[in-house]
Design goal:
Elements lengths: L4 H7 L13 H11 L12 H14 L7 H14 L4 H8 L2 E3 L5 E6 L2 E6 L3 E3 L6 H13 L9 E3 L10 H14 L4 H10 L2 E4 L6 E8 L2 E8 L8 E7 L8 H15 L10
Antiparallel strand pairs: 1-2, 2-3, 3-4, 5-9, 6-7, 7-8, 8-9
Helix pairs in contact: 1-2, 4-6, 7-9
Bound molecules: iron/sulfur cluster.
Length: 271
Amino acid sequence: MAYKVLDLFKDLPGTNCGDCGKAGCFAFATAVYLEAYPLERCPHLGDEAREIAARLQADRDEGGGRKPDSSEQALEHLRSVIAEIPLDGVAERCGGTYDPGPPESVTVEFLGTPHRILRDDVICAGKAPTVWVKILLLIYATRASGRPPEGDWVAFRELPNTVSKAKSFEASARRIAEAFAGRAEHLADAVAGVGGERIAHPSAPWAFRIRALPRIPLLLLFWDRDEEFEARASLLVDRSVLEYLDQEGLVFLAEALAQKLRGGDLAEVIP
Ligand code: SF4
């Protein structure tokens, strides 16, 4: 039987709390239905989750569901853009390493792992990057202005045009706080694993500078739980960050960071 976005939406809790990383239940339903965003990201579904998953699968089996070409189209567009730009200049602006090849490439560290940007693809020595990671890195490479970070940390919502995405960005910090509550030392280890380092900061007992991409540092502040308060985390960006990624790219980057710190698979990170 058909089971569409609206059917899924009606089966969700309807609180629009944003804990799933989306702006609300309808945005979540759309992402699950069209982009295979993981249903498990809504932590407020109980036993009914299994039933919903079965209905979604039955709908997919009948040809409904995913819209597979939107990401491929975006990737194709970005490939055509980078095909026109000299890669040595790209490397200089985005802080990558240029290799004349063949094949000609620019290597950038993405959350501690080197990725090679070629004219027609993005590759990685370990697991093949997902289409969304490729899109992120191509946006970064083609948008990079070369302006160095200002060293002025701001909240995501202080950047222009972030009202509709701020909750999603902040949900990533919340997921980090939940995962490492009572385990601050483990968070320090996880941060080291993505190329970050602990630094002193006047606002938080645990502060980490993470080089998410060569010209995109992130500041992660963490307050562990105590008798009074739950663990909290805050993720700040450099004021110059929009010279390198757009707002949606930053939301994806924050989700990818949360996923990697928790030891998860980047394949599950879908914008
Ligand atoms: S987590 Fe997302 S889908 Fe679940 S209730 Fe909150 S907004 Fe709705």
